[in-house]
Amino acid sequence: MTAVNLISGLRGRGWAAKSLADHVSLRLGGRARWLYQPADLEDLQHLLAAWPEHESLFFLGLGSNVLVRDGGFPGLVVLMHGALNGMRYEGEGRFYCEAGVSCARLARQAAREGFGQAAAFLAGIPGTLGGALAMNAGAFGGETWSFVEAVAMVDRQGQTILRHRETFTVGYRRVEGLYGAWFTGAWLRFPPSDPHEGQQAIRQVLRERAARQPLGQPSCGSVFKNPPGESAGRLLEQAGLKGYQRGGARVSLKHANFITTSPGARAEDVEELMIHMQESVVRRCGVLLEPEVRVVGEAA
Fold it and tell me: Scanning 64, 116, 193, 286, which has its CA 20 to 30 A from the CA of 12?
């Protein structure tokens, strides 16, 4: 069965040679050979079971920490946002949330139920829960996996899997033990808080985010992970990189660990700027920064 026939026989939405620029927060990058947005979990299972084993796969949420190279992605990109969007409160601070739900939406729901103070940090993560689970995303002192009890996953054959938190190795911006499967949802539990205080905590996170980060400009969020006991932004600023530009990519004047792009920028500009930032910090501070942004695809 050809990819065209396979995709047309499913219930979701599919495109061939689709630009990914509209699906990543940097607003640039090449095309996906195939892009598919499942109708629901069952549709995703059918897709994975039938998709050729030799074809590469990449799952994409809101694209807030992804750089797609100019040559595009040579296989299938599965668009999760707008697909797996279910969420429910199960009582006693426990929520089930599908992978395509935005972290900000989960924070708001937790606040409405009286658990918003602990969940407020999620309002500062500009991605989906699936992406947050994959990298243990965090912001403003909170980390996703601190509240995870169990997860639902799907493997390459389309089989669903239920796993408890203890079966993963979790650290700062890393999760090990996925074994080639992808997150489709998670059960999270938050401690109770005063509903008003929860709403206030979310507003404070949003205020701090607006004050510190270049919102309103295309960016990929934090470019590098913080080294142990240090701030990547401080090291980058110390290296004199604020405002440094390479093509259409520029180190933000507001926060040195952010790269913003202007119209006409290429993924190559961003990647070259990232390398320059790393080299500059090594020369100035003796520290090699590890990228937080995920670079995928092929060079043009």
Answer: 64
CATH 3.30.43.10 segments of the chain: 3-79
Task: Tell me the CATH architecture of domain 3-79.
Answer: 2-Layer Sandwich (3.30)
173 is catalytic: yes
Q: Which of 98, 143, 271, 292 is catalytic?
A: 292
Residue pLDDT, tens place only, 116-144: 999 999 999 999 999 999 999 999 999 99
- Asked if the model's pLDDT at residue 1 lies above 70, the reply is no
Catalytic residue (choose from 27, 173, 189, 284): 173
CATH fold of the domain at 232-296: 3.90.78
Catalytic-role residue among 102, 219, 222, 252: 222
CATH architecture of structural domain 87-212:
2-Layer Sandwich (3.30)
Q: How far is CA 46 from CA 4, 6, 88, 98, 147, in A?
A: 15, 10, 25, 18, 31
Q: Could you tell me where the beta strands, DSSP code E, fall in 122-190? A: 138-139, 142-143, 148-154, 160-164, 169-171, 174-176, 182-189
User: Taking the CB of residue 267, how many other CB atoms lie within 10 A of it?
Assistant: 27
What digits encode the pLDDT tens for the residues 15-26? 999 999 999 999
CB 132 within 8 Å of CB 119: no
